[in-house]
Structure prediction request, 153 residues.
Amino acid sequence: DGGAGDGGSGDTIAREGKWIYDEVTVTATSCASAASLLPTAEGENFFVTDSTPTGFTKEIAPLGKATTCTYRSGSLAFDCATIKGDIDVSEYSVTLPTVIAMDGELWSDVQADGNYSVEIDCIGDNCSLAESLYGITFPCTFELDWIASHESL
Prediction:
């Protein structure tokens, strides 16, 4: 019941299903508008599966990626394995390798908040064009804080 080594606190675990970002705030960025390429805006969503007292799987569908999140001992705070993926920007013929680190904390089984730390790079012949259009220099980084709730709310 929330003791050391058993993961989450008490009987609260993340409810499986679709979660929706209620609030998203960029707290630091060198990526300017390139940050909009990620599915992290208010109203976007992610999915929680395989929820247990020790953690859950978080699927970020538009990236086609999932990560395992583990509760810190005796609490509802969690850390997730880093996600690595590519965003193809076909109109510029470039690929943006993306690395996302994340953590957060459940408020209840249907509400949570967290932080994403993201690094975006560029591969392709038109990276300088993409830099010019986005007004950035690759690689760039940004951090954002989020609040999300299960679709049942």
About this structure: The chain has a mean pLDDT of 86. Strands lie at 17-29, 45-52, 55-60, 65-71, 77-89, 94-108, 111-120, 140-150. The CA atoms of residues 71 and 78 lie 4 Å apart. Residues 17-150 form one domain.
